[in-house]
Structures
1.
Amino acid sequence: MKRFPIILSAPSGGGKTTIAKRLLETRKDVGYSVSCTTRPARDDEKEGQDYYFLSTSEFLAKQQRGEFAESAEVHGNLYGTLRSEVERVLKLGQHVIMDIDVQGAMQFRSAFPESVLVYVLPPSGEILLDRLRGRGTETRETLKRRLLSALVELQAVQRYQYVVVNDDQIRAAANVSRIIDAEGLRRERLQNVERDVRSIIERLELELDTQSEGD
Ligand code: 5GP
């Protein structure tokens, strides 16, 4: 089966990172594309694992060289997905799970049209607010910026193929896993369908020939 990218988008605090982590823990056929960003690393984040943390000039140089499959400014920082990262994971025989914002998702789909787009919806406004406040790493200013971009990101849900409500992270990750399995069975992703169907047809035709010889 051909492997494909799975894009998870959600308003900030929607819980998509946890879903992506869970899928990476539970499925060997899923790998992660590490993005580049110009935002500073948080205390618990590691270079090359959570992100490649770049200066603005390093980021812009990569952008100019066409190294990004998509890039966007999110909450005042630059983020981008390296084509080489996506291709590295696909070559390993894994689906690529990506946690990218709405603008980036649309650009990415133009670069990789076989991508599957999943929108992770928080179960309610109150819960989204709690999650945004609960992060604890935001200043008043950045929290306000995140709220405003969440409003914009919520409008984009119509452009996604699937919606998963994140009322329970285990259930939500299981639903994304089902989407991956079902998408993997699409005819165009299966490698030997034409050959297999031809071989079945040949067998039936042979049977018909044998029968008409007996008539
Ligand atoms: P955070 O800084 O909290 O890790 O992520 C902030 C936002 O940036 C999230 O909505 C996340 O999905 C988005 N993001 C992370 N990586 C990328 C990327 O490579 N490209 C784009 N367009 N958005 C990204």
2.
Amino acid sequence: MYSRIIGTGKYLPDRVLSNLDLEKTLDTSDEWIQSRTGIKRRHIAAENQATSDLAYEAARVAIDDAGLSPHDIDLILVGTATPDLIFPNVACLVQKKLGIKGMAAFSLEAACSGFVYALNIADHFIRSGQASRALVIGAECMSRIVDWTDRETCVLFGDGAGAVVLEKGDKPGIIGSKLAADGSRGDLLRASTGITDTENEGKSPTIQMKGNEVFKLAVKTLGSIVDEILEENQLTKDAIDWLVPHQANFRIIQATARRLDMPMERVVLTVQDHGNTSAASVPMALDTAIRDGRIQRGHLLLLEAFGGGFTWGANLVRF
Ligand code: UT7
């Protein structure tokens, strides 16, 4: 038994914040942001939108694309670092919005690697016979945890959601996944405080990042994980049709493509349009390249992500 992707969807909130908009309130420039990151603009959720609203919109599109009704779904998984509430979890909130109940619904925290982690877990549910049709979502409102006075982080992030529907089948599908984490490097990229943080001073959490160190660690860890996942699945670099990377920084993506000897024409790049949307970035990039016709049935895809924790991971997918 395998799982395969039968539908995808994405949702970006209406409000667009461009680099030029940021220039008006911050000591930054469009030139700096574009040359260091590739980002041109990001989308910001409306005041009355929470992560589950974005997730729900992406989910509806993915379920529709799969030709299913919400009632066909028997597992809901959401990767997010910005849940609406501590509980109910975002997957339960999406379940309610979809008007369904009964199936397991849970969220997981692996920051920007959340979707890649969730896809691996959903794949296991399906392979073991515990689910037949899983809704897997990455959704974030990063704008709510950004310090808008910190130019080193606020220019990087945006809001959005991406979703896929996985169905059981007798052919892969998801060929393999590899997940990793190094908790000792948690200080590199973190939310400043939390609910049970013993040093919580009653402040709201904001993103703190040692950008340069994150950059170097991301290039290193992604480089090794792509080699490992190919080796474990007895595939060579040239077998990959599309690299669908976490959209954090154009230069990190370029470094991973170089490691795979892949021309940038075979890399899905969306970071320019929405910045770093954390767990939402991989499923949104996937949906974009499927809808514009670049990714075709039968193509071999390599999905990869890294993020706070430190976490990282990859999925090999026959579309
Ligand atoms: O999903 C995982 C999330 N995180 C990431 O993927 C981030 C990984 N890191 C990066 O993408 C890059 O390290 C950054 C884009 C964050 C920064 O790029 P960099 O090339 O590593 O720049 P830097 O941090 O070395 O800073 C270079 C200069 C500094 O000025 P000085 O000290 O050279 O005078 C910064 O103060 O750029 C300055 N700077 C800015 N200037 C204009 C930092 N942020 C800005 C800004 N606008 N927004």
3.
Amino acid sequence: MTNTQNGAPPMLGLMQEWPLTLDKFIEHAKRWHGKREIISRRADGRIERRNYMQVYDDAMHISGALLAAGIGTGDRVATLAMNSVEHLAAWYGISGIGAVYHTLNPRLFLDQLVYIVNHADDRLIFADGMFAPILAGLLPRCPGVRRIVYLTPPAEPVILPVPSGSLEDFVAGHDGTYAWGMFDEHSAAGLCYTSGTTGLPKGVLYSHRSNFLHALISISPDVLNLSSADTILAIVPMFHANAWGLAYATPGIGANLVLPGPRLDGASVHELIIKEKVTFAAGVPTVWLALLDYLDAQGLDLGTLKRVIIGGSAMPETMLHRFRDRGVEVTHAWGMTEMSPMGTVCALTPPVTDMPFEEQIPYRMKQGRPPFTIDMRLVDEDGKVLPHDGQTVGHLQVRGPGVTKAYLGEADHALDAEGWFDTGDIATICPYGYMQITDRAKDVIKSGGEWISSLEIESAVSMHPKVALAAAIGVPHPKWAERPVLFLTLRPGHEAEPEEFIEFLTTRIAKWWLPDAVYFLDEIPVGATGKVDKKKLRVICGEMAGVA
Ligand code: AMP
């Protein structure tokens, strides 16, 4: 920037040029924490251990092989893989040469994956063998992809229309001494598409700088409070929202990193926590629910685990208590693909820290405060800025170096005239600065002209001991425009009548918020990123009302 006060060129500092590129994280880990481990769990349950020196070397070889395969600056290289040490090495190998890693979510529908791969113009895909059947459907419709490299082998050979082979074969004979980085820190490093629940998926293109700053800030005490003494379990997938930055933060401090692969059931996650002496873990509420139910059923504890971070969807209050009963501190967080991805973290600050636990609960249940480099505000329908009084509900907007300004391939910026990005979430912000999501804008329930928070209904009912998962939606109503109805799945071994839950809610939410109907489902539908699919619920609701 050259807009100085008097038009003269700025006086530049005399410090070294050191672009904030992501290779610096793994290089630091190799040089200063070389023996700390990356622990990968395989689909068959085996555990594989590599250290940072080895992962650095693996990533270097991948860079060499990519260059030899004709991949260069700015080319997109996709990954279709669970969290593993090979996936991590691929990220560093790709972005180290200035190419862009593009994470594909294997849970998406094939048509969506085809659209995304073609839109991104992916050249090569690093894939887990377990996803070979997806590749067989994908590749005939994605002519730009020239090669498949298997990070882990397929169970049986699958015929593909482009050359494919193992990672070992891909890197064999290639140089392990490439000079990484050396380019502008604003260069693109990673690409992830939004889940496209409304309209087509959109590409969010992270820069080296945005991921670098995000990781640095996430380490600090008032955010994730990570240290080299931690063993960090990243359950949050690398294919969704950058694994919350842990692939950078962890080597940045030389902590051990545990990558769980595809086994995310309660028993497997518990075994990993105990065996690897995990101290910190990150994941979405559904994973934790499965773990907690397993612990209850088996009468087990959580060993060395001290803290979990929960985000991606709203955390039910019971989760806070169930972890606390086992000596584990819970931190709620909120973010999105369009950020790098964390936007708020509910690390407590004074004066909330000084309150007794019972008084802290309403704050702990909020999504939290924005870390440094993120700014946020609430606005009404007309863009008027709303107060931070904890009551006024508005559209949540964010800005900062870790927030997207435009989607890949779209000419228009995704920002308003003042540079704010509309998150699509509806929220309050309290006087202490804690943000609370009340709804997605597209999911709000408007009854008699007033908003009812579906998240608050869900949060209140999930305190009922029989409730496993709750989801509230609005359904059309002739008098009130919309009324809430509630869907529940029950915890194993329980039966219930709808009235129990209405009665339970009577003392917890306003009378006019009480759902008009309660339906039980064996399973509440969730989308590709593990969030409740309210669009599908509306269809189910229509069908149920039809047969009622
Ligand atoms: P995605 O881009 O798929 O990560 O989805 C981002 C959206 O997930 C946000 O805009 C929120 O609507 C929702 N979300 C993420 N974290 C939370 C949370 N802790 N509580 C409630 N909603 C959340």
